[in-house]
Backbone:
């Protein structure tokens, strides 16, 4: 039976090969009788209709300021989902009169129970509208966001107002936030990537003891010291309509303004009926660039991957004061950041990813002992920080600093990649 099966398969293979040969001959004869030019339209084919940019409706960002000072910004776009968010002029730079780490705590307590919803009810309501929530905190902003079905914008705006202006801030939620913050601090310490710690240290050195130099991450000693009264005082001081911008994407502006007016004005906050301290007023100080040096020793000997220990590395970050995101030079720094680029000696994402930048071509490709070289640009409302980060063996740290400084000095030299980076940023802004 096996021999019969093999013979049958051989016959089928021969027949299939014969059919392929006949098809190839027929295809060659038909193609020889058709003369088609690649630079001319096909005969008889309809003329293509090309879309021009000037024919498309402009996606203009519209801004309206309400009576109580809330700014409403929106931009309409196509799609089945919309995103609404609340951006507050708050963050770690405003914690000068408060225990450091309050912004970190508030981000972990976002979208919990409110005066109108329990935690479970709020979660079910968000899920019913196909929503996803997020809260991020930075040095000068705290952002709340919800993405949901476009047809459910009105109830989603109501949920956003509940999360921003009417959180309960219960003792149980504070306890849970302490656990989350402590876990995140432990994760940062155990993380192999030193970028979060380097970013924290470079800001401390650049703006020592003021505004942007205040710690973004909650100090370990404050995790158990931040009280409910501290949180309510901070909310009362900085969660005000004049410091709030409500944004929407994928929604009509006029209807969005009415939704915000209905849910964010003439409503009481959850801390309005509590005894909050009136001695605090919003900090209006301007960031002062001081410069300096900050170091941190970390023992990574206990961190092992399977059996082999981790390589001993030293990390360094060099920073210079740049400009705020409100200045015209902000775009120049953005192009400069892309021009330097950089990354690790092993970069995931495919061959050649990002290898057109200077730090790849002039540092990582030339110096095999450099493990990482990356440029960063941090921009804020009144200042900025342009940094270059590198890592190598401790014995090569002195030479690494010299290499990075050389790259800073060579920024005055003109190369053709500047024009290329401008085109790259034009594409990013368009798409």
Residues:
């Amino acid at each position: 039976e096996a021999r019969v099966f093999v013979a049958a398969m051989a016959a089928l293979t021969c027949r299939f090969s014969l059919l392929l040969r006949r098809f190839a001959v027929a295809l060659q004869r038909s193609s020889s009788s058709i003369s088609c030019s690649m630079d001319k339209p096909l005969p008889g084919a309809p003329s293509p209709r090309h879309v021009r940019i000037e024919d498309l409706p402009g996606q203009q960002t519209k801004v309206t300021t309400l009576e109580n000072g809330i700014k409403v910004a929106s931009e309409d776009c196509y799609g089945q989902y919309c995103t609404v968010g609340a951006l507050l002029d708050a963050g770690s730079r405003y914690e000068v009169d408060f225990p450091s780490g309050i912004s970190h705590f508030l981000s972990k307590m976002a979208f919990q129970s409110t005066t109108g919803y329990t935690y479970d009810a709020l979660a079910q309501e968000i899920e019913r509208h196909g929503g996803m929530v997020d809260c991020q905190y930075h040095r000068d902003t705290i952002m709340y966001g919800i993405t949901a079905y476009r047809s459910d914008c009105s109830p989603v705006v109501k949920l956003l107002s509940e999360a921003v202006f009417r959180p309960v801030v219960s003792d149980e939620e504070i306890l849970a936030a302490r656990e989350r913050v402590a876990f995140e601090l432990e994760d940062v310490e155990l993380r192999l990537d030193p970028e979060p710690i380097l970013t924290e240290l470079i800001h401390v050195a650049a703006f020592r003891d003021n505004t942007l130099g205040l710690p973004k991450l909650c100090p370990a000693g404050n995790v158990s010291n931040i009280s409910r009264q501290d949180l309510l005082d901070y909310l009362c001081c900085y969660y005000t309509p004049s410091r709030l911008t409500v944004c929407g994407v994928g929604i009509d502006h006029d209807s969005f303004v009415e939704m915000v007016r209905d849910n964010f004005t003439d409503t009481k906050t959850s801390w309005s009926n509590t005894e909050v301290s009136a001695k605090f007023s919003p900090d209006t100080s301007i960031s002062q660039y001081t410069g300096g040096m900050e170091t941190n020793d970390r023992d990574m000997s206990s961190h092992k991957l399977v059996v082999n220990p981790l390589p001993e590395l030293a990390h360094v970050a060099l920073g210079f004061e740049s400009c705020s995101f409100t200045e015209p030079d902000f775009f120049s720094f953005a192009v400069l950041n892309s021009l330097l680029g950089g990354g690790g000696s092993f970069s995931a994402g495919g061959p050649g990813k990002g290898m057109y930048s200077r730090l790849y071509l002039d540092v990582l490709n030339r110096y095999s002992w450099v493990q990482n070289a990356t440029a960063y640009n941090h921009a804020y409302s009144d200042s900025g920080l342009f940094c270059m980060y590198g890592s190598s063996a401790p014995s090569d740290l002195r030479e690494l600093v010299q290499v990075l400084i050389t790259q800073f000095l060579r920024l005055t030299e003109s190369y053709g990649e500047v024009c290329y980076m401008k085109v790259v940023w034009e594409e990013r802004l368009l798409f």
Summary: The CA atoms of residues 146 and 293 lie 40 Å apart.
